[in-house]
Amino acid sequence: MKKKKFLAALLAGTMVLGIAGCGSSGEQANSDSGEKGGSEAKKIKIGVSIMELTAYPWFQGVVDGCNQWAEENGKEKGVEIKFDFEDSHSDAQTMLTNLDNMQVAGCNGIILFPADASSAIPTMKECVSNDIPVIVGDYVQDPASESDVVWSTFVGHDMKALGRKAGEAAVKYMDTLGKDKPVCLFISRPTSGQASSDRFDGFKETVLKAYPNAKIIEEGDTGAGTRDSAQTLMENVLQREAEIDVVCGHNDAEVVGAYNAAVAQGRDEIKFVGIAGDKDVLGWLKEGNEAWIGEVLQDPVVLGYQATDAMIKVLMDKEELPEKYDLPDPEVITTENIKEYDWENWKWLG
Questions:
Q1: pLDDT of res. 118
Q2: Direct distance between the N- and C-terminal alpha carbons of the chain, in angstroms, rounded to an integer
Q3: pLDDT digit string (tens) for 121-169?
Q4: What pLDDT, on the 0 to 100 scale, is given for residue 44?
């Protein structure tokens, strides 16, 4: 996300400043209770169940995005929002408990960033039957039938587009090598299901379109999905692969782990493309670390912002939303353009 103008322009002419309150350990607040333009703001409570706030600071950006929407849009819209942010800790049962508690607590609507692809569908049906609309974010659901699709819209990044952008960055670098058969490694995350498959497919299709003879190696990190597990995986790959030009992966943990392994073995010919947003990667780009081609930004602030916008349209405007609530196209941060980003003030970076 570039300077703050981006989100302001994103929804110019719609909705405005409000209050985000707190009532549990997961809640955060923004308040502007003194000025309501002479009319009483409508008070609503929105539950936000987030897949993982503890292990992945990336999701803190979702919280920031929700609060930012309230700050920028609630007042003009005449709405006072109380957010109830709850952490599912990547556990489906905890997620379901959060949803039950939000219903009991009187939430007017629920934004769900699911812990898996289908466990929440029965509870979402229950919410909707009780006139509590649900917005699903980030993780595409896998309904067994059309009747399972009860959420108002899906707000999420285009996972394949993230892969394509990474592929474009890789191709731009490989164009400088003069090779007909470059070699790329993509470290996927099988437990992330379709999201990981889409990122890999986008990357692979983009590279092969430019280099039909390229060798694309896919390795799945079935371990913890951390830098350490990715480093171990990469150490094994390096033992058998004498030539690798570019490494990309499902997220920054996978790519940074691979980078650490390559550095340890002196494989300085390998270049890297990250996906998501990582403080170390952006620091290396700022420093001009030649191993890093770029970082494909998956902006969680935009995700939370747009999910809140969608919920207000359902609750306040009674709009029927499209199946997918589009987000802006992903951007590639490079050494050349990193000065355009205020990344050092992004609290969600991990």
A1: 95
A2: 16
A3: 999 999 999 999 999 999 999 999 999 999 999 999 999 999 999 999 9
A4: 98
* Residue segments in the chain with a per-residue pLDDT below the cut of 70: 1-39, 350
Q: What is the C-alpha to C-alpha distance for residues 122 and 118, in angstroms, rounded to an integer? A: 9
Beta pairing class for 42-50 and 79-87:
parallel
Cβ atoms of residues 230 and 254 within 8 Å:
yes
Q: What's the pLDDT score for residue 54?
A: 85
DSSP-assigned beta bridge partners for residue 47: 84, 110
Rounded CA separation 112/109 (Å): 10
Task: Tell me the pLDDT tens digit for each residue of 156-212.
Answer: 999 999 999 999 999 999 999 999 999 999 999 998 888 999 999 999 999 999 999
Q: Decide: 334 and 294 in contact? Cβ < 8 Å.
A: yes
CA-angle at 329, arms to 324 and 331, nearest 5°: 150
Assign 3-class secondary structure to the chain.
CCCCHHHHHHCCCCCECCCECCCCCCCCCECCCCCCCCCCCEEEEEEEEECCCCCCHHHHHHHHHHHHHHHHHHHHHCEEEEEEEEECCCCHHHHHHHHHHHHHCCCCEEEECCCCCCCCHHHHHHHHHCCCCEEEECCCCCCCCHHHCCCCCEECCCHHHHHHHHHHHHHHHHCCCCCCCCEEEEEECHHHCHHHHHHHHHHHHHHHHHCCCCEEEEEECCCCCCHHHHHHHHHHHHHHCCCCCEEEECCHHHHHHHHHHHHHCCCCCCEEEEEECCHHHHHHHHHCCCCEEEEEECCHHHHHHHHHHHHHHHHCCCCCCCCEECCCCCEEECCCCHHHCCHHHCCCCC
CB 66 within 8 A of CB 20: yes
Q: What does the alpha-carbon distance between residue 1 and residue 14 come to, in Å, rounded to a whole number? A: 20
- Token pair for residue 113? 């960033």
